[in-house]
UniProtKB/TrEMBL annotation:
Listed InterPro entries: Rossmann-like_a/b/a_fold, Universal_stress_UspA, UspA
Family: Belongs to the universal stress protein A family.
Protein name: Universal stress protein
UniProt source species: Candidatus Nitronereus thalassa
Domain UspA: 2-142, 149-287
Length: 287
């Protein structure tokens, strides 16, 4: 498995480094820092001083980048596999996406910066941009993962379930956590404001469908060595997933992305974006 570990010196990025302990050895594991150099221009300083200031700032930022990458590499567990260290110039999200494509990464691991809700929806955080546009799975670390013991897997349909099974069949984790597979039937506000008018028989049919597809995943995970259970619940998807994550005290949520594109993402948001923003634990987004 080829893993790209993006670090920036924040506490969350070092949590991401430590989370590598839960993954199977990577070949290679590339530790990268995206160096977004400023273009300083102060006409009142004159061309010589302006250039001197730019060089000074650039050298200081490169030294900081090397320090962060070296520290991150030193914190990696002994079993992590082959390590490569890279410092790449460019805007963080774009540099991470390009690096992942260049190495044909199987997984991107990075910390969440915790950008505020309004700013996040207006311009997007680095982690959300990467999560939205990466061609491979993205593991966003929001809180430290010391031991991966419990995992929540929300699925919307059979395709989701098979996608999760396909990913877990690649043995991405060193140890197999207990898995709860959940399907949310959206018969509640604000998803379906007329939810109360839905016939009880149809509601039961949808719940039966939810239990059926979650049980299908459970049956497929058994031979892979996972202890799993399935359940179906009523509610607004993002809220219900967040609530179930708290109830099960999961260490990680693994789900496929159903992100909208363009303006609709910012106006309405996707379930995966809603979960990543509101949940306290780490999230692994699959493609």
């Amino acid at each position: 498995m080829k893993v790209l570990l993006a670090v920036d010196g924040s506490d969350h990025s070092y949590d991401a480094v430590r989370a590598v302990e839960c993954l199977t050895p990577a070949h290679p594991l590339r530790v990268m820092y995206a160096l977004n150099l400023p273009r300083l221009a102060y006409p009142t300083l004159g061309p010589n001083l302006d250039k001197e200031l730019s060089v000074t700032v650039e050298e200081a930022m490169k030294e900081e980048a090397e320090s962060v990458v070296n520290r991150a590499a030193s914190l990696l567990p002994p079993h992590h596999g082959t390590t490569e260290k890279r410092i790449v110039e460019g805007k963080p999200a774009e540099a991470i996406l390009a690096a992942a494509d260049d190495m044909k990464a199987d997984l991107i691991v990075m910390g969440a910066r915790g950008v505020g809700q309004l700013q996040e929806h207006v311009i997007g955080s680095v982690s959300h941009r990467v999560m939205s546009h990466a061609s491979c799975p993205v593991l966003v670390i929001k809180s430290p993962i010391r031991h991966l013991q419990r995992m929540l897997v929300p699925i919307a349909d059979e395709e989701d379930g098979q996608g999760v099974v396909d990913f877990l069949s690649k043995n991405p984790f060193r140890e197999r956590p207990e898995v709860t597979v959940v399907h949310v039937v959206p018969f509640s506000e604000p998803i379906w404001p007329v939810g109360a008018m839905i016939p009880e028989g149809f509601r039961k049919d949808m719940m039966s469908y939810g239990k059926e597809i979650t049980n299908q995943v459970v049956e497929k995970l058994g031979p892979l060595g996972y202890t799993a259970r399935g359940l179906a619940v009523l509610g607004s998807p993002a809220s219900a997933i967040t609530q179930e994550a708290g109830a099960s005290e999961c260490d990680l949520i693994v789900m496929r992305s159903h992100a909208r594109t363009g303006v609709s993402r910012f106006l309405l948001g996707s379930v995966s974006h809603g979960v990543v923003h509101h949940i306290g634990c780490s999230v692994l987004i699959l493609r």
